[in-house]
Structures are given as structure tokens and as C-alpha cells.
Task: inverse folding
């Protein structure tokens, strides 16, 4: 089976977050299962220094009355096992950011997404390889399925290719004015309630949802939640309409890249079967790095973008109570809204011995925090899957998270008389609910045995990509024309 991933991000070449990481690792697991899998991604400025061979023929999109031509380049770096095609268009993709620069979102993002999505349906003209399945990711690649349907309708022959759309975060939909739809070159009838129109605007994700053969999202629980008005981000009706074709598949993580027993970024290896010594050394190092006073009390780590979704405003509100009244220290790494950045910074200034903050993103420091903390706080208001809690668990930092999306699928909540618990879940995005969960964690931490059991279960929780890859392969087989 031949599958083409279409995505604006692919790690390690271009990424802003979880989407890039998934597109950079799931294909490797699918390839191991014997699928012929390849990736199409724009040739962003940050990919320019890669060894890429540009192929002769071009792909083109007829947009309004213009013809926009792009070339395809093949990555010639054998360290990445899956073939990657880069879509080259100097005008549209050779930019400082993937979606935006310091001036904000690019004004022509709709057109950029049309050019990428359309190219996926023409790739066989250039590379002499025709995918059976076009698997697109998030709004920027979502219209692939519509271009595919248009192509197949035009031919008037039975379908030879099928499509899957994976939603990594329903919040990002790609919303633009109607005038942008005209640039797509898609049939006029694809506008409207059964297509790309959403409350009068162009909505790329909605168009993808309406057109894809199947739709997936990144955890079973999120697949249920997004059909409801509470989590549906105004697309719940479309998702209900397509409900029979919508499935949730839990993301894995790359176990080789996230292995605490051989991670060069952490100061001491941690053995999942007897983590105490390694954890303590990593903890001592993080205490020193952040200038905290004590490595005897539990350390709570945070590695996150600082946006409303992540719910860390709740932690900001309760932190003074916690550090004044309990033996607990905090290390926070993240960036995002000015308000939250300043909120955490102020707390670090007021309680320097107990709160360490670094504004920014630094993957190596993130790894040191996973390794050096005892608990990991993730109070997300919604979370399609969440990768950080999975990394934290593998590195022996017990998660304290809100019961939503993939957090509920990866964390087993503490219950009386159950010996499966590997973390803490709380129900409402309320300060008090988070506080109660943290207090419970502190209680368990005092009983060393209880904590160690929970920690060990967190470290050994299954998280490989193999399970997910098997499920994706099954979904592809349902789609196969
Ligand atoms: C998005 C989601 C996150 C998910 C990731 C990868 O970043 O917000 O929850 O883990 O995509 O699918």
C-alpha cells in the first residue's frame, strides 16, 4: 500500500509543535510494517540548507486566471528513512515562518494551503509514484481530499485513490473570507454547507472534513469530545454528520528519541526498572540549574506553550498558596501569552528559592525538566492528545492533568483500591480542582512506596507508535478503493 502524508510540518526539518513531531515519527512506524510511505511538505526557508534535489517537471494550480507552478524536490539525506518531498515555490514558502512571522499570520495562507494540497494530487506526474491514500494533516493540508474528489469527478472513472484527514487540533481551522475560495480553483459547487462554507466564511478544515473518505483525530476520547458543542469549536455539526467515518487513534512517541536511559541531554541516565538513583541525580542538577533551595522536596515541572488551552493560568493563581504552605518547588519552561509569561516570571521573582522559570523553548532543557522533576503539571482545558505528558511519564515525572482528550486516554487516575494508577486527573478547569490533585500527589509523595509504584507504572506505560501504526494501516485498508 502506498501512502502520502501531506503536512506543513515534519520534524526534524520544520516544526512548531506536536503536529511536526507526529509527522516525523508515525511514518517510520508505518514503514516498518511494510507500507510504502512518503511525505510531502513545503520547502520552507528553514529547510533550504538540506540536501534536496529538485526534479524536472512541475505541478500547477489554476487559481483565478493565474497558473501557479511549483517544483518538487527530493530529500537526499539517508539518515531519514522515509522519502520526503519538498514543494518548492519561492514566492509562497520561502519565508521566515511556517504560518506566520513577527508581523502575524501570512495574508495568503489560504492560497499557500491550496498550492500544497493540490500538489499532493499531482505528485505522480513528477515522481513516478502514485499513492493509494492521501493522508493530510490539519487545516493547511485539509483541502487535499477536495482536490482529489475534483480530480476523480473530472475523470469520471471509478476512484483509484482515497483520502484520510487527521485533525491534530480542532482549534486551528484555517478561516478566510469567501474571496479566498475563488483562488482555490475548486469547483464552485464545493462552496456551501456541504463543503467549505462555514457561517459565510471559507473554512479549510471543514471543507476537508466534508470531503475526506475518513477522518481521524489523535485520541479516542478527543474523537468523542469534538462531536459535542463544548469541544466541537463550532464544527461539531459537521463532525456529527461525518461521525460514522470519524475515528480516534492515540498518538505514540518515538521511544528511541525519548529514552531516559540513553538521552545525552540529561545529566544522568534513568533506568525505568530502578529509577531512584538516576532521578535523584537529575533532580539535583535541575535544582542547581534553576537556583532552587532544596532537592529534598518534590519538584513539579511544566513544559508548555503558555496559552489559554493549556490552562496554566490556574497554576499561576494557586502557586503562592502552594509554595507558602507546602513543601513543593516548581520549574517552568514555556512561552506564549505575555500575561502568563509575566505571571510566572513574577512568581519566580517573589519565591526564587521555590519557583524557577525560563521563558522560551529549549528542547534539551525540556528533557532535563522531564528527568529532574517528580511530577508534571498539565491542566489543559482541552488536549487532542498531548505529547508532553507522555514524555514526562517515560522520564519518571508523574503527570497531574485535567481529564480531557488524550490526557484521559494516557493517564490512569488514582482510585481507591486500584493498583493501576499512573498519574492524577482532575475534572474541571478550576483552581480548586487542580489544587486538590496536587495536594493528593503531595500526600502520596510522602509515602515513598506509594509514589514509587505510581512512578514506575508511569515509566512503563505503553507508548510506542506500533499500536497506532497498526490502526492507521487498518483505516487505510477501509479507504482503499
Ligand atoms: C497538537 C495537539 C496535541 C497533539 C499534537 C500531535 O499539537 O494540540 O494535543 O498531541 O497536535 O497530534
Result:
Amino acid at each position: 500500500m502506498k501512502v502520502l502524508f501531506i503536512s506543513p510540518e515534519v520534524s526534524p526539518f520544520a516544526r512548531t509543535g506536536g503536529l511536526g513531531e507526529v509527522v516525523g515519527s508515525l511514518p517510520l512506524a508505518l514503514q516498518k510494517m511494510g507500507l510504502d510511505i512518503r511525505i510531502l511538505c513545503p520547502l520552507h526557508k528553514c529547510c533550504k540548507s538540506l540536501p534536496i534535489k529538485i526534479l524536472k517537471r512541475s505541478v500547477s494550480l489554476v487559481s483565478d486566471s493565474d497558473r501557479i507552478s511549483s517544483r518538487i524536490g527530493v530529500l537526499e539525506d539517508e539518515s531519514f528513512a522515509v522519502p520526503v518531498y519538498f514543494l518548492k515555490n519561492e514566492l509562497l514558502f520561502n519565508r521566515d515562518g511556517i504560518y506566520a512571522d513577527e508581523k502575524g499570520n501570512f495574508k495568503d495562507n489560504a492560497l499557500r494551503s491550496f498550492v500544497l494540497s493540490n500538489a499532493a494530487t499531482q505528485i505522480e506526474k513528477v515522481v513516478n509514484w502514485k499513492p493509494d491514500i492521501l493522508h493530510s494533516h490539519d487545516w493547511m493540508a485539509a483541502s487535499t481530499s477536495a482536490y482529489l474528489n475534483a480530480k476523480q469527478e473530472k475523470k469520471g472513472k471509478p476512484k483509484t485513490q482515497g483520502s484520510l484527514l487527521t485533525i491534530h487540533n480542532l482549534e486551528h481551522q484555517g478561516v478566510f473570507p469567501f474571496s479566498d475560495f475563488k483562488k482555490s480553483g475548486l469547483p464552485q459547487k464545493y462552496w456551501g454547507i456541504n463543503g467549505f462554507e462555514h457561517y459565510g466564511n471559507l473554512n479549510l478544515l471543514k471543507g476537508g472534513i466534508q470531503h475526506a473518505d475518513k477522518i481521524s483525530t489523535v485520541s479516542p476520547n478527543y474523537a468523542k469530545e469534538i462531536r459535542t458543542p463544548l469541544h466541537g469549536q463550532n464544527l461539531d455539526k459537521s463532525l456529527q454528520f461525518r461521525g460514522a467515518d470519524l475515528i480516534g487513534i492515540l498518538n505514540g512517541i518515538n521511544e528511541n528519541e525519548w529514552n531516559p536511559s540513553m538521552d545525552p541531554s540529561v545529566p544522568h541516565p534513568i533506568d525505568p526498572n530502578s529509577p531512584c538513583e538516576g532521578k535523584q541525580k537529575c533532580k539535583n542538577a535541575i535544582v542547581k540549574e534553576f537556583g532552587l533551595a532544596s532537592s529534598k522536596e518534590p519538584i513539579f515541572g511544566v513544559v508548555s506553550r503558555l496559552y489559554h488551552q493549556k490552562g496554566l493560568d490556574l497554576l499561576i493563581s494557586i502557586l503562592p498558596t502552594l509554595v507558602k504552605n507546602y513543601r513543593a518547588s516548581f520549574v517552568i519552561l514555556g512561552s506564549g501569552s505575555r500575561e502568563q509569561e509575566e505571571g510566572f516570571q513574577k512568581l519566580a521573582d517573589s519565591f526564587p528559592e521555590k519557583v524557577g522559570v525560563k521563558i522560551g523553548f529549549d528542547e534539551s532543557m525540556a528533557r532535563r525538566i522531564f528527568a529532574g522533576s517528580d511530577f508534571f503539571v498539565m491542566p489543559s482545558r482541552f488536549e487532542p492528545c498531548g505529547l508532553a505528558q507522555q514524555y514526562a511519564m517515560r522520564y519518571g515525572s508523574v503527570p497531574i492533568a485535567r481529564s480531557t482528550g488524550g490526557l484521559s486516554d494516557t493517564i490512569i487516575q488514582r482510585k481507591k483500591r486500584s493498583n493501576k494508577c499512573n498519574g492524577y486527573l482532575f475534572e474541571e478547569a478550576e483552581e480548586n480542582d487542580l489544587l486538590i490533585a496536587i495536594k493528593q500527589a503531595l500526600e502520596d509523595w510522602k509515602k515513598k512506596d506509594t509514589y514509587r509504584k505510581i512512578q514506575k507504572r508511569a515509566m512503563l506505560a505503553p507508548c510506542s507508535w506500533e499500536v497506532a501504526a497498526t490502526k492507521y494501516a487498518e483505516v487505510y485498508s477501509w479507504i482503499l478503493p
Observations:
- Residues 349 and 355 are 8 Å apart (CA to CA).
- Residues 431-446 form the longest helix (16 residues).
- DSSP finds 19 helices and 20 strands in the chain.
